[in-house]
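User: Please fill in residues for this 244-position structure.
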């Protein structure tokens, strides 16, 4: 029975690690759905796609997160296998019938029924954990608190951007919001010198409902603008270290 509770506990830890990993990837600028998928992919070692995996391996912070998730996934896998084998070994050593006391009465159950009951308990625990980590208001609250704490860490003090397209050699287009504390606010593109300083080419501004295509060096960046940048994703990610 102790191994059964260990399996359930490991399931809970697995859900928690995957969800926290998704939050960590989200803080690096990935979309929520992409972050959760990549977190699950790293943890289980399956499900990678070429385009989205490049978003992870070309980003130094994401690579570290992926490594932690992969190591944790392997530890959980070994623990689950060990617990399952020990559960089977314990069941094999049991008598044909198991005696249980219920309201001053002794009940005899065949050991196969006990195994079925344990399997159903694991399945029920999996469903409860899934509902908690996907639909529970409590997890929604905890998620916000965890995300707020993580955002204060130096590892995530990078610009919040969205990747739209990744082409050959890791180059692609990103959409970056200019925050109020950004050094870009109130400066022209010529003053910022985006290409030389940040290895990025400004393709357009988004300012409210207006889009300014092919901006010139004299165009001024305002707080709240969205910049559409093109360049090598890994270079832009490392150069644009602007605190969220």
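Assistant: Residues filled in for all 244 positions:
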């Amino acid at each position: 029975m102790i191994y059964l509770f260990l399996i359930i506990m490991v399931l809970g830890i697995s859900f928690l690690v995957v969800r926290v990993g998704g939050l960590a990837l989200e803080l690096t600028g990935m979309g929520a759905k992409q972050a959760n998928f990549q977190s699950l992919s790293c943890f289980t070692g399956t499900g990678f796609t070429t385009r989205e995996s490049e978003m992870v391996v070309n980003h130094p912070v994401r690579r570290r997160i992926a490594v932690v998730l992969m190591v944790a996934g392997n530890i959980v896998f070994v623990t689950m296998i060990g617990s399952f084998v020990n559960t089977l070994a314990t069941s094999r050593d049991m008598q044909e019938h198991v005696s249980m006391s219920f309201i001053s009465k002794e009940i005899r159950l065949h050991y196969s029924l006990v195994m079925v009951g344990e399997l159903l308990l694991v399945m029920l625990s999996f469903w409860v954990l899934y509902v908690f980590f996907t639909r529970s208001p409590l997890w929604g609250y905890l998620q916000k608190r965890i995300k707020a704490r993580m955002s204060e860490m130096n590892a995530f003090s990078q610009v919040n951007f969205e990747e739209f397209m990744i082409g050959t050699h890791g180059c692609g287009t990103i959409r970056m919001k200019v925050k109020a504390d950004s050094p870009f606010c109130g400066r022209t593109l010529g003053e910022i010198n985006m290409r030389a300083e940040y290895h990025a080419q400004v393709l357009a501004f988004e300012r409210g409902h207006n889009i300014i295509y092919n901006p010139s060096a004299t165009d001024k960046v305002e707080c709240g603008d969205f910049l559409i940048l093109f360049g090598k994703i890994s270079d832009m990610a490392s150069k644009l270290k602007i605190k969220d």
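For context: The CA atoms of residues 26 and 118 lie 36 Å apart.
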